[in-house]
Specification:
Helix 1 (2-13) packs across helix 3 and helix 2 packs parallel to helix 4. Strands 2-1-3-4 form a 4-stranded mixed sheet, with helices on both faces. It has a single domain, classed as Glutaredoxin (3-Layer(aba) Sandwich). The mean pLDDT is 96. It contains 4 helices and 4 strands, in the order H-E-H-E-H-E-E-H. By secondary structure, it is α+β, with helices and mostly antiparallel strands.
């Protein structure tokens, strides 16, 4: 079930990136700024607003911190990682 949730969010987003976030997350805000600077769109799902979503994303990716970012630009759902990985990936 965990991967299906991510696939559904990716399919429904219509954006360049998919990002899972948390409240009071400086790295999440940095990722949003990075996407804005690069003129890239993203869909955001905040774990605080979706019961059980964090567990599904961790089960699918093994990534326990936020943000959790996926590149959707090539019609695939490519897991990148967090902010540091995304920053390196885009620069």
């Amino acid at each position: 079930m965990s991967e299906e949730v991510i696939i559904r969010h990716a399919k429904d987003s219509g954006t360049d990136f998919l990002m899972y976030t948390g409240n009071f997350c400086g790295y999440c805000e940095a990722a949003k700024r990075l996407f804005k600077i690069k003129n890239l769109t993203y869909a955001e799902y905040n774990f605080e607003h979706y019961s059980g979503l964090r567990q599904d994303v961790v089960a699918a990716t093994g990534h326990r911190t936020v943000p959790v970012i996926f590149d959707l630009r090539d019609g695939k759902v490519l897991f990148i990682g967090g902010f540091d990985e995304t920053n390196r990936y885009l620069n």
